[in-house]
Amino acid sequence: MTKLCCLIVIILCILHVSNCGRLTGNCLASNGTCGRKGFTCDDAFGKGWIDEGQCCSGRPCCKYLGVTNYRCGFETVAPCVFEDSSLDDFDWSRKTGFTDTRGTGPSAAAEGRYYIFTEAGNFYFPDTLMVIGAKAILTTEATNLQACPYCLSFKYHMRGVAIGSLEVFAGDKTSSLTSFWKKIGPQTQDPVIWDTGTIDIPQFSNLVITIVGSIGDGEGGDIAIDDIFLQASACNAGK
What we know:
Structural class: mainly beta
Oligomer: single chain
Number of domains: 2
CATH architecture of the largest domain: Sandwich
Number of strands: 17
Helix content: under 10%
Radius of gyration: 22 Å
Number of helices: 1
Strand content: 35-45%
Low-confidence stretches: 1-19, 21-26, 34-65
Mean pLDDT: 77
CATH topology of the largest domain: Jelly Rolls
Order of helices and strands: HEEEEEEEEEEEEEEEEE
């Protein structure tokens, strides 16, 4: 009978433990990381965790509830999950239609009317010296993202003779971030067609994601992004 009870406990752990809505078969610690069966959950679950059955050691298994997805379309000036960083060299600018420099930037937003872009020509920031490598940074730092794997997708437009780079970093807020995606130089000569970036972001306990646009060598380097979608799931990015 004792062996049977232990078996039932283990089965409950396998069935009920969940990582951001996906069954994993693992037990979950309060720091937001999943461990192998037998790695016990502890009592300090934190916001969003609930007891669900018994874990392998007799302590609770956990299931994550209330996972939030985020979208930024820039149709209003209201802040979204990605906000301008206070640590960058200049800010992203909101725009509709062409940018102010000929031969660079999109002709219209990817979705709706508005998009944001890095102004390489000093039109919006006359007091800022736009040197090569100057950075405009969007960050999720102000949002406490749940400890989940995420799929990040967005539209981007990189047209012009002096395009710099567009890069996505992610990691734990308390440590250095890792680059997960990067494009350098012009990616299109068409002002109408936008490209799509799709990136798998693995699980971190204190996740922060940044999107960094860097200035190239000259005014013809406006980089635009639009329709950012951050979803709590893996997306198996292929590009």
